[in-house]
């Protein structure tokens, strides 16, 4: 694909092109992942790295059914960030939905492509089941240590989230990728634009599981952090985002950050 990412090179000829925004090495598609992943040509992606909706935020169904700001943010209503879609499923529906898109997206990945999925402790068992049901090999779990969390007397702090990872078939040790840590220690980002946004440096570290110069897919682009991190680390990246507000916020953020970096390097 050279230095320019062309949708025509990765999408089936008869596929309907969704609304999309992008640049030299990146594209964000606006639409539903379940529908869009089937539009990709087989074997085009070198890695999948994503932070899907957890459908978590409570131990009871009425707690999970709350809007995402109510579940994951303490911001007052006037300052609240936009809610995002797809987070109100019960556990069985969520696992079925995860398995479905994971099965379809595997077809669009090269043999040996790694996959990294962020998740919390409540949905950890279900996501590992969905990953394996979809035909991926589950290879382990890395930890994101957020450092800060609400203390609870007589209980362990819930200060970690997890990165369940695996591969599309065999994953040779000889891949030209350096040794990666199993624990990443970064606090939650300040001035975030998404309710569950991950730190940019965390994602710059995680994308390095992909071989140099590869094409990374993020089926739940959100604030665009994974796509931005991938481009900053020298990869190409495609994101999918269904929520209107985050499609705009994410693409604007990526474009602004890359333009700013180009200006600092004197590239216009």
From TrEMBL:
<dbReference type="GO" id="GO:0008170">
    <property type="term" value="F:N-methyltransferase activity"/>
</dbReference>
<feature type="domain" description="DNA methylase N-4/N-6">
    <location>
        <begin position="46"/>
        <end position="167"/>
    </location>
</feature>
<feature type="domain" description="DNA methylase N-4/N-6">
    <location>
        <begin position="188"/>
        <end position="249"/>
    </location>
</feature>
<keyword id="KW-0489">Methyltransferase</keyword>
<dbReference type="GO" id="GO:0003677">
    <property type="term" value="F:DNA binding"/>
</dbReference>
<dbReference type="GO" id="GO:0009307">
    <property type="term" value="P:DNA restriction-modification system"/>
</dbReference>
<dbReference type="InterPro" id="IPR001091">
    <property type="entry name" value="RM_Methyltransferase"/>
</dbReference>
<dbReference type="GO" id="GO:0032259">
    <property type="term" value="P:methylation"/>
</dbReference>
<dbReference type="GO" id="GO:0009007">
    <property type="term" value="F:site-specific DNA-methyltransferase (adenine-specific) activity"/>
</dbReference>
<dbReference type="InterPro" id="IPR002052">
    <property type="entry name" value="DNA_methylase_N6_adenine_CS"/>
</dbReference>
<dbReference type="GO" id="GO:0005737">
    <property type="term" value="C:cytoplasm"/>
</dbReference>
<dbReference type="Pfam" id="PF01555">
    <property type="entry name" value="N6_N4_Mtase"/>
</dbReference>
<comment type="similarity">
    <text>Belongs to the N(4)/N(6)-methyltransferase family.</text>
</comment>
<dbReference type="InterPro" id="IPR029063">
    <property type="entry name" value="SAM-dependent_MTases_sf"/>
</dbReference>
<protein>
    <recommendedName>
        <fullName>Methyltransferase</fullName>
        <ecNumber>2.1.1.-</ecNumber>
    </recommendedName>
</protein>
<keyword id="KW-0680">Restriction system</keyword>
<dbReference type="InterPro" id="IPR002941">
    <property type="entry name" value="DNA_methylase_N4/N6"/>
</dbReference>
<keyword id="KW-0808">Transferase</keyword>
């Amino acid at each position: 694909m050279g230095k320019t990412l062309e949708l025509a090179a990765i999408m089936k000829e008869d596929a309907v092109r969704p609304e999309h925004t992008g640049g030299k090495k990146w594209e964000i598609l606006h639409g539903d992942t379940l529908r869009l992943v089937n539009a990709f040509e087989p074997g085009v992606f070198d890695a999948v790295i994503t932070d899907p909706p957890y459908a978590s935020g409570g131990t009871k169904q009425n707690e999970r059914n709350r809007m995402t700001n109510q579940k994951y943010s303490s911001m007052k209503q006037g300052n609240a960030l936009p809610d995002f879609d797809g987070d109100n499923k019960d556990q069985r529906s969520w696992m079925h939905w995860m398995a479905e898109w994971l099965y379809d997206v595997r077809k669009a990945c090269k043999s040996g492509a790694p996959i990294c999925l962020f998740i919390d402790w409540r949905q950890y068992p279900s996501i590992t089941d969905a990953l394996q049901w979809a035909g991926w090999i589950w290879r382990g779990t890395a930890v994101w240590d957020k450092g800060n969390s609400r203390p609870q007397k007589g209980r362990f702090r819930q200060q970690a989230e997890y990165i369940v990872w695996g591969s599309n078939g065999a994953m040779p040790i000889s891949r030209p990728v350096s040794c990666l840590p199993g624990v990443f220690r970064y606090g939650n980002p300040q001035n975030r634009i998404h309710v569950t946004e991950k730190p940019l440096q965390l994602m710059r570290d995680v994308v390095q599981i992909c071989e140099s110069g590869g094409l990374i897919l993020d089926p739940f682009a959100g604030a665009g952090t994974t796509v931005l991190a991938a481009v900053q680390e020298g990869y190409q990246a495609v994101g999918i985002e269904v929520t209107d507000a985050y499609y705009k916020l994410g693409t604007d953020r990526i474009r602004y950050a890359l333009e700013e970096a180009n200006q600092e390097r004197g590239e216009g």
